[in-house]
Amino acid sequence: MQYSYILMSEGQRQQTKDQGLFLLYDIRDEVSYDATAQDLGKMRMNGLVSSSWTQSPKSATGRETVTAHGEAQRMIGFVSSSSSDIDIDDDDLVADKNVTPSMTVNELFNSSGVVAFVLLGLLNNSIFVIMNSVAKDITAGGVALVYLANVLPTFLVKLTGPYWFHLVSYDIRAIAVALLNVVALNIVAKGESSTIQLLGVGVSSLAGGLGEPTMLAMATKSRYNYQASLTAWSSGTGIAGIFGYVWTMLFVYLFKLPTQTSIMIANILPFAYLCTYFGLLQKDRCRGSVGDNIERARTNNGLTSTNTASYEQCSLTESNDNVNLGVDVNASLIGDSNEAPRESVQERVSFQQKIRVFFSLWRYMIPLFTVYTSEYAMQSGAWAAIGFPITSVNSRKDFYLASNFAYQIGVFISRSSGIFFTLNLKWLWIVPVLQCFLLVFFVVDTMYNFIWDFYILLFLCFVAGLFGGVVYVNAYILITNDAQPRWKEFSVAAASLADTLGIMTATVLGLVIQGCLYGYHSISEQGNPPVFQCGYDY
Predict the structure, then answer these.
(1) What does the pLDDT look like over 417-468, one tens digit per residue?
(2) Sequence-ordered list of residues with C-beta below 8 angstroms from that of 500, at least 6 positions apart, any chain
(3) Under DSSP, is residue 420 helix (H, G, I), strand (E, B) or coil?
(4) Which residues of 223-261 are buried (b: 16+ CB within 10 A; e: fewer)?
(5) How far is C-alpha 231 from the geometric centre of its chain's CA atoms?
(6) What is the C-alpha radius of gyration for the chain, rounded to an integer number of angstroms?
(7) Considering only CA atoms, which of 275, 251, 274, 273 is closest in space to residue 130?
(8) HEC profile for 137-163?
(9) How far, in Å, CA of 450 to CA of 469, rounded?
(10) Is the previous residue joined to 341 through a cis bond, with omega within 30 degrees of 0?
(11) By three-state DSSP, how is residue 200 classified?
């Protein structure tokens, strides 16, 4: 099994060998430890590791690939020098395609960390979905206004976040997410006008915009296979779609409670978010650390002893990502999550380099943008104008809930598929094109009713969810597969801007589509015209 490694010059490599000191790295825990050349030699003698050196044809840099065997599969990552020089070329941005660590089924289902990512995905996105599910109660004639309020603040956070996230610990960001959601729920529940309620939706959007890129970045630092962690997060966000609409249908339609009451009850969700983050995720990151694996390997293979006390701590600050270069290799590279962030690779690279990496992500971001634009334009535009009969306000409201529920089931299924298969880049581009065809179909069909069957349309809403979910999870898996280790966190956080930008574009399209379809069929919301009237007189 091959793990990741970092570029270093031949001279630096030889100097490190002459000093007899190596910095070994566990890609699962994002934790480093020091070992002597004697340690590494004994590991090779016992068949635990083997390595090979590859010289770069472009420069005086090369790569040492460490291949781990047996017990060392949990231990060994790359060997690095202590140089603080960071040179980025095109090869820096792309990792070896064969470095994805494996994960057994038992590890997957027995990991509290993987369970934590499922729950965090569920809890982070549930309030977003609940807000969308009651959109017709907030602004019936302009559902897309709720979608816009629910995504614009998210866009601003994702646009700027990758450039300041390293200054704020994961713990602080998690607490901020929970507090913002509490404030948002209370504003929406107690707001006496649509304007105030939209403000509350916007506060909720801030929370979601902070939570998603934070947890996507954390998934790349998981002690387990990042593909499993990203899939777990994606699956949780898929469950959130179902959960959010079930929440509204349960309290509003079954229990006949006011919408405001159902939203107030949702205040339990931010509390559950914090319990999951601090009770499950931190516990998993601090348990079974690399130090334990090192000691077990030393006991079994007679390796020399080094101080492992510091390895039992866990790091949750984004600033301690990947590997700290230019520090004393005898010092602990693992810090407490509440410490002030220390200098890191991401901090020492220039803003221009970050922008360069951002634009190199276009091949993943365009499919994300396209699929989100299409599906949210369907939801806020075409599906809001469908009813059986189409002239009935209640029928349109019922189909809006049913269609979104079917869509969310599709999202959950496809977002959970990442551990079973991965799309290649070609299919990552094909699926959004198919989603665009679905958008065109729903608009034309709502106008002319040539396929006007409740269950057929629900099935197509389900298919739209499959398309959207599979692009979401596979885009982030491909990004994490292709990015160099030091750029993984930045890349997934930066790329998450694409789906939010897609939703923003879709809200504008949704306003136009809903208004034109209402005007075409001469319908309104209890005498109130839609927000966008598309040239029709009311």
Answers:
(1) 887 888 999 999 999 999 999 999 999 999 999 999 999 999 999 999 999 9
(2) 151, 154, 155, 158, 209, 372
(3) coil
(4) bbbbbbbbbbbbbbbbbbbbbbbebbbebbeeeeeebee
(5) 9
(6) 25
(7) 251
(8) HHCCCCHHHHHHHCCHHHHHHHHHHHH
(9) 28
(10) no
(11) helix
Nearest to 124 by CA among 241, 217, 284: 241
Rounded distance between C-alpha atoms, residue 467 and residue 470, angstroms: 6
Distance CA(94)–CA(483), nearest Å, equals 5
Contacts of 531 (CB under 8 A, 6+ apart): 139, 141, 142, 144, 145, 511, 515
Three state DSSP letters for 211-273? HHHHHHHHHCCCCCCHHHHHHHHHHHHHHHHHHHHHHHHHHHHHCCCCHHHHHHHCCHHHHHH
Half-sphere exposure of residue 280: CA atoms within 13 angstroms, side-chain side = 17
CB 405 within 8 A of CB 245: yes
User: One-letter amino acid identity for 2?
Assistant: Q
Name the one residue in this structure whose structure tokens are 């799309």.
423
Nearest to 145 by CA among 373, 378, 380: 380
- How far apart are alpha carbons 401 and 408 in whole angstroms? 11
CB 249 within 8 A of CB 262: no
CA atoms within 13 A on the CB side of 317: 25
- The tokens of 118 are what? 């499922």
The string of pLDDT tens digits covering residues 256-313 is 999 999 999 999 999 999 999 999 887 655 544 333 343 344 444 443 333 333 333 4
Coil/strand/helix, residue 205:
helix
What is 399-410 written as a DSSP string? HHHHHHHHHHHH
- Residue 278 is classified by DSSP as I
DSSP 166-192: GGS-HHHHHHHHHHHHHHHHHHHHH-S
| Confidence class for position 112, pLDDT limits 50, 70, 90 | low
User: How far, rounded to the nearest angstrom, does the alpha carbon of residue 65 sit from its chain's CA centroid?
Assistant: 29
- The single residue listed with the structure tokens 């015209």 is 529
299, containing H or E segment: helix 290-301
- How far apart are alpha carbons 424 and 474 in whole angstroms? 8
